[in-house]
Amino acid sequence: MGLPADGHVHSQFSWDANQGAMEETCARAMELGLPAVSFTEHVDFTPFRAGFLAEKFADLVTDGILNAPVLDVAGYLESVERCRAKYPELRILTGMEVGQPHLHVTEVAGLLAQGTFERVIGSLHCLLDGDEYAEPWELFPHRPADEVFRAYLAEIPRMVRGSDAFEVFTHVDYPVRSWPGGSEAFRPTDFEDELRHALSALAAGERVLEINTRIPLHPTILKWWREEGGRRVTFGSDAHLPEALGHGLGEAATLAESNGFSPGSKPEDPWIASN
Hints:
It contains eight helices and 14 strands. By secondary structure, the chain is α/β, with parallel strands linked by helices. The protein has one domain: TIM Barrel (Alpha-Beta Barrel). The strands form three sheets. The chain has a nine-stranded mixed beta sheet. A three-stranded antiparallel beta sheet has the order 3-5-4, with no helix packed on it. Strands 8-9 form a two-stranded antiparallel sheet. The chain is globular, with a radius of gyration of 18 Å. The chain starts with 5 loop residues before the first strand and ends with a strand. Pathway: Amino-acid biosynthesis; L-histidine biosynthesis; L-histidine from 5-phospho-alpha-D-ribose 1-diphosphate: step 8/9. Residues 255-275 are annotated as: Disordered. It comes from Kribbella qitaiheensis. Its EC number is 3.1.3.15.
């Protein structure tokens, strides 16, 4: 079996991927033999503490708070159509990755109304810290790692209840990316109750769990997804550069197969759990 579709890819239309390039990414997909890619560009309406991003994105930062620009929908959709014409053998899906969609229901609805988006991903990047929102890497220096992760997991059911705009939930282990070195190593079993509650809420809300391969998903989490009623998974490299496309997808597909998931009817479809 070849690689599965990469369902989470960024291009130059994502505010933090200015080195990305949609056409070059499509060319890379052809080289890798990927059957499909989804360009899920960042949509971030939540102003958040810039931290180490302040220097790189100085034009977006005021008084230490980063305000991301709104997605250029018209330019994005035009670029997708050019790529579809240039690479007709590659299935190219439109999409977006919406951060904290439950906090911005009206704004997200307005953006979705501007075009057809075939893969809408929901992500939780920021948590409230005092009167500001901040990424986990901004929280860890002054809050215990276990407290941050529990707060993150507790927000997921609220996100499911508060937004029906997204079908796929990505990187359920997002804070682990920046897990502080001085803390005890991350172990899913330390957060079993909270993880199961979050996964159960996603499953009950009929959402799809993305196996994000920026870092490997702990196999125990996927096992619990099945046990909590999760029926579908997708795969996403979260690539912000063409050369990162497809990273870890083979290993993720093997993990999904070992947990009873198999490909859908079309290459870009979520994988489905067997009974």
